[in-house]
Amino acid sequence: MPTDKKVETDINYPDLEKHNNWMSKCLTPAVYTKLKNRKTPSGYSLDKCIQTGVDNPGHPFIMTVGLVAGDEETYSTFSELFDPVISGRHGGYPANAKHTTDLDATHLRGGDNLDPKYVLSSRVRTGRSVRGLALPPWCTRGERRKTEKIITEALSALDGPLKGNYYPLTGMTEETQDKLIDDHFLFDKPVSPLLTSSGMARDWPDARGIWHNDAKNFLVWVNEEDHMRIISMEKGGNMKAVFQRFCDGLQKVEATISSNGHSFMWNQHLGYILTCPSNLGTGLRGGVHLKVPLLSKHKKFDDILSKMRLQKRGTGGVDTASTDGTFDISNLDRLGSSEVSQVQCVIDGVETLIQMEKRLEQKKSIDDLIPKETKSNKTTTVAVRFHFH
Amino acid sequence: ADFPDLSKHHNIMKNHLTPGVYAQLRDRVTPNGITLDQCIQTGVDNPGHPFIKIVGLVAGDEESYETFKELFYPVIKERHNGYDPETMVHPIDLDPSKLAGGKLDEKYVLSSRVRTGRAIRGIPHPPMCSRAERREVERVVTDALQGLPKDLEGKYYSLKTMTDKEQDQLIDDHFLFDKPVSPLLTSAGMARDWPDGRGIFHNDKKNFLVWINEEDHSRIISMEKGGNMKSVFERFCRGINEVEKLIQEKGWEFQKSENLGYILTCPSNIGNGLRCGVHVKLPKLSQEPKFNEILEKLRLQKRGTGGVDTAAVGGTFDISNLDRLGKSEVQLVQEVVDGVSLMIDMEKKLEKRQSIQHLIPK
Question: What does the entry list as the binding residues for ATP (chain B) (predicted)?
Answer without folding.
Answer: 111-115, 174, 219, 275-279, 303-308
